[in-house]
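Worked problem 6 (solution included).
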Amino acid sequence: MLMHRILFEIGGIQIFSYGAMISLGILVAAIALYREAPREGINPDHTLEAIIVGAVSGLIGARLLYAALHWEQFSGRPLTILFARFEGLSFYGAFIGGVIALYFWGRWRKINFFKMVDLFAPYLALGYAFGRIGCFLNGCCYGKISDVPWAMPAAMVDDLLRHPVQLYAAAGGVLIFLILKLLRKVRPFAGFNLLALSAFYGMLRFTTEFYRDEPVVWLGLTLAQLFSFLLTLFSLAAIITVMLLGAGTKHKKTRALEQKK
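Solution. The predicted structure is:
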């Protein structure tokens, strides 16, 4: 695989591709969100603060969930959980940790949580794409053995040709980013983009897992696929429920106005 685990070295300090791509994703998101925030009626400085809160909490959540799912690696040396070097992370852990932290941060700052996450949602998908490119360069999260013309060897494992599933996931992340950018202009309620992101990502992860070299746990599905399936169902159900409740409320208001006339 086209692996460049270490991008370059400065004064004896090695810059790893995985961490560099995650950092680049955060930087791109920060610049874009700072520029777009005023259009949504949000203080740009608050977006930078939210990015710091979300990024730090997301990295902690990503590391903790990864450690929980791979406890056999840490049971004898639990302190190594604290030294991730941007490796051994779970996107679901980052997503959950970041969202929870932003919710409580928003309450403390008295900022509308749903309005903020609608602004952030597309860039979380874009950041995911950057992260998966980092996985590709790092040689981790590799795919199954394949004979497709674009198959590549996973140097960290063996020299067998495999699906470049990291690039599939990165392309999916970019597509979700573009869709959410369009949906944000016509979203039917605050918080819609967060639920749409959850649904789209659940579908993407469920699909790409078929090409990843991961152990199955039930009905031929991996643990990530089972969680992704449930996340997608929950997100779609939440969207439908909120829209139906909103339609019902609107109908009641219309009837009330007609009766007054």
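Discussion: Helices lie at 17-36, 44-69, 91-109, 113-138, 165-183, 192-208, 223-260.
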